[in-house]
Amino acid sequence: MDRTHIIDLCNMLLWLLIILTLLCGFIFTKTTKGIPKSWFEWKTEFRYQYLGIVGLIHDAQYASRDRVALYKQPDRIAVITGGNRGIGLRIVEKLLACDMTVIMGVRDPRSAEDAVGGIVDLSQTKGKLICEQLDVGDMKSVRAFAQKISQTYAKVDLLINNAGIMFAPFKLTADGYESHFAINYLGHFMLTHLLLPKLRAAGKPGRNARIVNVSSCVNLIGRINYKDLNGLKNYYPGTAYSQSKLAQILFTRHLQTLLDAEKANVQVNVVHPGIVDTDLFEHSATTAVPFFKKLFFKTPERGSRTVVFAAIDPSIEGQGGTYLSNGGKGPFHADAKQPAKCEKFFEHSCALLKIKQYGNGEYPL
Predict the structure, then answer these.
(1) Known catalytic membership, residue 241
(2) Coil, helix or strand for 21?
(3) Residues 132-153: tens digit of each pLDDT
(4) pTM of the full structure
(5) Which CATH number covers residue 147?
(6) Do 128 and 48 touch, CB atoms closer than 8 A?
(7) Membrane-crossing residues (predicted)?
């Protein structure tokens, strides 16, 4: 075999290796463990693959600025949904290190306290941990949780809307909403409405109370399907998830507009924590390649940094309505840059929940 044939063979083997690598990468990083069944599902997967690659590059490129400086704030009260695992657990760890009173809204308070106790010495920390029952996908549970906080505390300094699910099979909640939409977005929309009076009470000039919505870079491929929010006609987990994450950003942007109009000392920001190795990926194909996640994804501790940055960092004081990623501003959906579209969705959400005056703290009948 002459040199030309050897070079051609090597080139062919190289291309074969590249194709096989890409194919394996696609198979083992799909949002579901099954095979897409339609062109719509294939397109969704290809979009997720693209955003995944871009997200990993962004996480690596801006790793040096992905930091948060913790400082003592013993007078502050923080409320967080979730927090018993993954990113949320590390958020709670950081807030306790700031000597805050941290109220966790979780499905199982006892196991949540045990989880926090596994990484924080609760007998030594000057922060105070309180675990309360909350199913953020159930509006009655949201109401009970908010009522308990409102009756117990005169103010709430921080509200971190962290709880969420990802790529889950189709399920309707007790209130009749698709689970991603209900848990990731609508329950937090209601909780924020109910706790806004307490947040207003906490805010002071130069020291805003803060709301942090934990979103995702996949908002960029999200679309609000007004005709079928529950995805009854064509449900696909990745589509449901990206819709809920776009919803959080539209909500953030319009709520800040309302808060600015009333000159409230409250700001709301939305965060992409990065691509993080957590249990949220339990429904995806990545469970077959845990080493890949360990190698390329952020740890939960790193994923918690920008969330806590949004909650406490003085450098973004007064910069509400901002989408943050890796300790700085990040790209977000074009619809969220159009005030009319943000307002339309905000009003639609109020209509769904029968809220007549958002932020007055009253539970709709």
Answers:
(1) yes
(2) helix
(3) 999 999 999 999 999 999 999 9
(4) 0.92
(5) 3.40.50.720
(6) no
(7) 12-29
